[in-house]
Amino acid sequence: MGLEEYKGVFVFAQQVDNVLDGVAFELLGKGKELAKDLNTEVTAVLIGSGVKELADQLAEYGADRVIVVDDPQLKDYRTEPYAHALASVINEYKPEIMLVGATAIGRDLGPTVSARVKTGLTADCTMLEIGDFPLNAAAGQEQQHNQLLMTRPAFGGNTIATIACPYNRPQMATVRPGVMQKIAPIAGAKANVVEYNPGFTPNDRYVEILNIVKAVKNTANIMDAKILVSGGRGVGSKENFKLLEDLAEVLGGTVSCSRAVVENGWLPVDLQVGQTGKTVRPQIYFAIGISGAIQHVAGMEDSDLIVAINKDEDAPIFDVADYGLVGDLNKIVPALTTALKAELGK
Ligand code: FAD
């Protein structure tokens, strides 16, 4: 079958316990842009048990069509039935592009499905656009138009690679939560809802779930915070993070950190910002005692306003900061907290 028979941008609409994951809306936002460039539609693929009523939410965030695979076998995520569901949807509806969130579920599902439908997948993309696949006449290649160009950091973040999948369909990519922007929801929008069930026959590859124990999280989700007070190795110790907690409290913000802090065991990995942590986009990001390594900056550079505090005036964090304070954080942070307390009447 020719590649030209594959049409449309598809997005895996991840849900857990019948609640849609934010990354589904983010992928729909990006999917809409790509679909516009290709003059086609965005389809959300909703897989689960009793999930049909979530279709309206997907429509509000940009889905033109929702393909629902609803079956009791799909109640909780398991690789085999979910991979069967998504691979069957791809084989039946033949999308040109298939986007999956790089969540724990997506990182398992995406590559399993891409292998099953015999196509490639680019993991952890930070940019997706439609463009031409460069001609390499020497290798006898023909110029390919309207390709999905998938960009991601490579070699530990030291370079940026743009990858295409010109000879197979669909073109598959995973994208980390927080990287793409969702659209403002269009209240009352409706999508064309299509129900499709490929049939599920449990076999010895179906994992049996005996019990689900949910981790109790007492850390805030830094991806939702409007103000982040982020600390790095320069904070010096776990105890000294109290200075940042005090500042965060006055501002109604949340504490986050660099990887060095996690590696030192000062804060949990849930609070790590960066390439291997979370991508954040708060209104204000304080980078305190953080040098500004490329892998850290990759996770926070889209913040609306960046304030950096560092004793080294040449620290690379100042290249991305809107405001920079050069000096000892042990003096600046408490002084800032006191001044803000007075200013805000706290
Ligand atoms: P440092 O680089 O040690 O910087 C500490 C800073 O504090 C310095 O600039 C110093 O001048 C300043 N300072 C010290 N004392 C004071 C003081 N008293 N007052 C004011 N300033 C002071 N890093 C991440 O953060 N997130 C990631 O997701 C991530 N992913 C990675 C993935 C890969 C594959 C690799 C190879 C690395 C990754 N890293 C990540 C690590 C990254 O390269 C850096 O090592 C890390 O970000 C450094 O953390 P830092 O800025 O806290 O520490």
TrEMBL record:
GO terms for biological process: fatty acid beta-oxidation using acyl-CoA dehydrogenase. Residues 9-209 form the Electron transfer flavoprotein alpha/beta-subunit N-terminal domain. Signal peptide: none annotated. Binds 1 FAD per dimer. The keyword Hydrolase does not apply. The keyword Iron does not apply. Pfam families: ETF, ETF_alpha. InterPro entries: DHS-like_NAD/FAD-binding_dom, ETF_a/b_N, ETF_a/FixB, ETF_alpha_N, ETF_asu_C, Rossmann-like_a/b/a_fold. Its cofactor is FAD. It comes from the Bacteria. Keywords: FAD, Flavoprotein. FAD binds at residues 233, 258-259, 272-276, 289-296, 310. SMART domains: ETF. GO terms for molecular function: electron transfer activity; flavin adenine dinucleotide binding. Belongs to the ETF alpha-subunit/FixB family. This is Electron transfer flavoprotein subunit alpha/FixB family protein. It comes from Roseburia hominis.
